[in-house]
Amino acid sequence: MVTSHTSTAARARASTGRVSGFAASILLILEGQWIWYRLNWRSTVISSVLLPVLFLVALGMGMGALIEPSEATAGMDYLAYLAPAMLVVGAVQNGAGEATYPVLSGFKWQKNFWAVTATPITPAQLACGKLVWIALRLTFSGVAFLLVAALMGAVSGLGVLLALPFSVLTGMAFAAPVVALAAAMKGEGDGFNALFRFVVMPQMLFAGTFYPISNLPELLQPIAWITPLWHGSELARGAAFGTLTLLPTVGHLTYLGGLLAIGTVLSCRLFRKQLVV
Prior knowledge:
Blueprint lengths: L1 H13 L7 H19 L4 H18 L15 H22 L1 H8 L3 H5 L6 H29 L8 H25 L5 H17 L14 H5 L2 H14 L4 H30 L2
Helix pairs in contact: 2-7, 3-4, 3-7, 4-7, 4-8, 4-11, 7-8, 7-12, 8-11, 8-12, 11-12
């Protein structure tokens, strides 16, 4: 009993009641995410790694066998042409997945966000920690995808290593605004179905993943330009094939970085609005 009282008193003394430093708070949030992920990673393998690989096999090796290298494929085999874009597609899809129901659950069902912000961790730190975790998840999944793609002979050179950070940036440029959306959502997450059906899937089909958008009708091309996936695919293919040029690269990075910054600011504000009573 004496030991129990002593331990409780020691914990009470250790608690300062002060807001943690930003880096320390992010590390604590990542630790909590990692503990959960270490126990449940198997349930995410199919959506995060296997699905993009299946697309690569079916379209890159299956349909790609019917497509000759041409100007439309940058002179590459279709499998090699498709692989960098599928890396980016996987990042966008995984980012969307991590930014929707897991975030809504933290507010609505599990309510663990309320528990976290009852500690010295602030809502803004929680939002940033969640975004950093999503970025790490995209990096892990991207590395796994590249390893499988390399074994399939879909990697055209070491330039594809630079495509990995471009894919993570693209995934985060899409995920950060969705995290803000999830923080503001009041219902049971029905709006996420529309997000996946009318935003995520059309992006994959019409934003230059499988063919250059110059093949689209001129009326549809501006729609492709505003999608993060098109900018990410252009960067990833440029890195993989060694065709990056300065001004287009700066333009793509600025657009994606702007989306990420706006999404991060909105997420912090909406987390604070929801969690500060």
